[in-house]
Amino acid sequence: MVVINVVTLIDVVWLSGDNQITAAFEIECTTSIYSGLLRMADLVALVPNLNFPLYVVVPQSRVAKVKKELSRPSFQALKMNKKCNWIVLEDLVQEWEAIIKYGTELDAINRLSGSLNKIKN
User: Fold this and answer.
1) CA gap 56, 40 in Å, rounded
2) Rounded to 5 degrees, what are φ and ψ at 52?
3) Rounded Cα gap, residues 9 and 39, in angstroms
4) Cα(67)–Cα(110) distance, rounded to whole angstroms?
5) Across the beta sheet with 21-27, what order do the strands follow?
6) Residue 30 gets which letter from DSSP?
7) Closest listed residue to residue 11, CA positions, set 47, 46, 36, 29
8) What's the pLDDT at 104?
9) Which of 38, 77, 87, 103 has the fewest beta carbons closer than 10 A?
């Protein structure tokens, strides 16, 4: 599988001005969270040193499923639990205007995202 083929399967790819990938997003409102994470895992497997964040966008009702999937041994072996964050769709919709107006960097998105790394056990 060629990297470009994997990238074309990802829902949203944020490109910077020099056509470098800034971030990748899978939008999983009704489709399988596992399949979205698997597409991103394929990318990580093909490019293990990738230096841009991965996000899965889900409704609040599906966050527990994202956490469960990211905790799977196969995703942890690829360190997806550290490379992939989730964004709650409702939070994104609420903050959309401010992100569009002021969010030219990933910082605006990162503040909305959740991560297994941010969870205290």
Assistant:
1) 9
2) -130, 150
3) 7
4) 17
5) 12-15, 21-27, 54-58, 84-88, 113-114
6) S
7) 36
8) 65
9) 77
Residue 10 near residue 55 (C-beta atoms within 8 A): no
| pTM of the shown model | 0.82
Can you give the length of the chain in residues?
121
* Residue 121 confidence (pLDDT) above 70: no
Q: Which two tokens stand for residue 110?
A: 């990162």
Residue type, 91: D
- Which pair of tokens denotes residue 61? 């009702």
Which whole number is the average pLDDT over 33-50? 88
Residue 41's pLDDT band, with cuts at 50, 70 and 90, is: very high
Instruction: Name the token pair of 43.
Output: 């990318």
Helices 63-70 & 33-46 angle (0-180, nearest 10): 40
Phi and psi, residue 54, nearest 5°: -115, 140
Would you state the pLDDT for residue 1? 55
What is the rounded distance in angstroms from the CA atom of residue 47 to the CA atom of residue 41? Answer: 10
3-state helix, strand, coil in the chain (%, to 5): 55, 20, 30
Residue 120 has pLDDT above 50, yes or no: no
- SS3 (DSSP) at 63: helix
